[in-house]
Amino acid sequence: MSALQKRNTSVSISAVDLFCGVGGLTHGLQQSGIKVLAGLDVDPTCRYAFEKNNAATFIEKDIRKFEGPELSSLYPSGDVKLLVGCAPCQPFSVHTRKYRKHKDQRQDDKWGLLNDFGRLIEEVRPEIVAFENVTPIRKEDIFADFIGKLKFLKYSVYQVLVYCPDYGVPQKRRRLVLLASTLGEISLIPKTHLRATLGCAGETSLLQTEDYERLPPCPTVRETIDDLPPIAAGEVSETDSLHRARRFKAKNQARIKQSKPGGTWKDWDVQLRAPCHQKPSGETYTSVYGRMEWDKPGPTITTQFHNFGSGRFGHPEQDRALSIREGALLQTFPEDYDFLEPRVPVRITQLGIHIGNAVPVRLATVIGQSIQKHVEENTHG
Ligand SMILES: C[S@@+](CC[C@H](N)C(=O)[O-])C[C@H]1O[C@@H](n2cnc3c(N)ncnc32)[C@H](O)[C@@H]1O
Questions:
Q1: Residue 267: which pLDDT band, with cuts at 50, 70 and 90?
Q2: Residue 381 pLDDT > 80, yes or no?
Q3: Residue 179, C-beta contacts closer than 8 angstroms, at least 6 positions apart
Q4: Among 1, 99, 301, 315, which is most buried by a count of CB atoms within 10 Å?
Q5: What is the value of pTM for the model shown?
Q6: What lines the ligand 1 site, CB under 6 Å?
Q7: In Å, how far from its chain's centre is CA 331?
């Protein structure tokens, strides 16, 4: 039994966030009460938002050049060490595979970054490790090797596929969450929200009656973005410079006018359809060029959420795609999360990458709460 285990004083948890981006995961962990010391990311454009909104230092570095002793030196002695990391998901995502069929994702230079996460775990031996990624990663050898390494290092490993509305994230997003601990068995806390009061999903029968009385419904698109002022495509709100929507080409303007909430491009006049949709092979791509529905959770927010043609990213009733603010709110960033560095031009594409790449803050809070509970249960006599 480690010195940290079964003692009576309360134990503080200190975290380092590898691949920290603009801090979705860090912010949620901090909201759960976990101290995040630092985040590491190779992209310098993430620094402003990460440091402005979080009491943590941004380390601009390629993880492949980050060594164990440097990481170890960040942790104060006596704290439970938590190492979290959401390696870039592009090499493993279904979306990448669908649209880059001819490219072997193993050639992607991001492919091996999970090995560097594993290397740092081996060198530093944090008591707890947490990780979030897209679900197809489970089928990859590199993931099996990662789990194998954790088990070899005597971690108790837990993995679960999370449907985000079950934890109050207003998005039909599915993600893999992995938790590993040397203190004992660890797991995610039970679901915190009901997904189905709105007729949006089928697993209500799995819930007990008391869950209906106890759990609040998952927020909908309406509850998340309806109070923002209306804007047109290409416009910026006078009161909020993050509430800005991409300009539309004339054809997309005509298309969105004919789009119905929850419908597809099949609702449009034939002459508006894209050439690929006219081929039999394009018939199945019904999740692009769609409008969201007010009273359901939104689609998975990707880095392209501001593009009408890249998913079900049309506003439920205004003729435009989601604004940057709406994407951030659906990712459960707080309204006052500051993404815009003063005197730096606003770049929609870059903000889309920062926001779409993030772990939803609410899911990160749930991960943090699960870790807090685990540490409390395993370090008090
Ligand atoms: C999925 S995003 C992480 C999002 C973040 N956890 C959040 O919640 O906001 C992956 C991040 O990995 C970073 N990244 C990519 N290659 C890297 C490398 N070699 N070293 C460090 N960071 C890297 C990217 O810049 C990106 O911000």
A1: confident
A2: no
A3: 128, 129, 130, 131, 157, 158, 159, 186, 187, 188, 367, 370, 371, 374
A4: 301
A5: 0.91
A6: 19-25, 40-43, 46, 62-64, 86, 88-89, 110, 113, 357-359
A7: 7
d(CA 54, CA 61): 18
Told to judge if 218 belongs to the known catalytic residues of this protein, a careful annotator would answer no
The topology (CATH level 3) of 13-194+361-379 is Rossmann fold (3.40.50)
Cβ-in-10-Å burial (0-12, 13-18, 19+) of 309 comes to middle
* Helix ranges restricted to H, the chain: 24-31, 47-53, 68-72, 94-99, 113-124, 141-152, 209-214, 221-225, 250-257, 275-278, 324-330, 348-357, 361-379
Q: Which of 20, 46, 86, 89 is catalytic?
A: 89
How does DSSP classify residue 194?
B
**Which residue bears the tokens 């592009």?**
90
Instruction: Provide the 8-state DSSP code for 297.
Output: -
- For residue 46, how far is its CA from the centre of ligand 1 (angstroms)? 9
3-state secondary structure of 198: coil
Question: How far is the C-alpha of 204 from the C-alpha of 271, rounded, in Å?
Answer: 41
- Asked if residues 97 and 145 have their Cβ atoms less than 8 Å apart, the reply is no
Task: Render pLDDT for 231-250 as a digit per residue (tens, 0 to 9).
Answer: 999 999 999 999 999 998 88
- List the residue whose alpha carbon is closest to atom 11 of ligand 1: 19
Q: Where are the domains of the chain?
A: 13-194+361-379
Residue 169 · residue 221 · CB < 8 Å: no
Q: Is the dihedral of CA 343, 349, 350, 353 positive or negative?
A: positive
Cα 172 from Cα 66, distance rounded (Å): 35
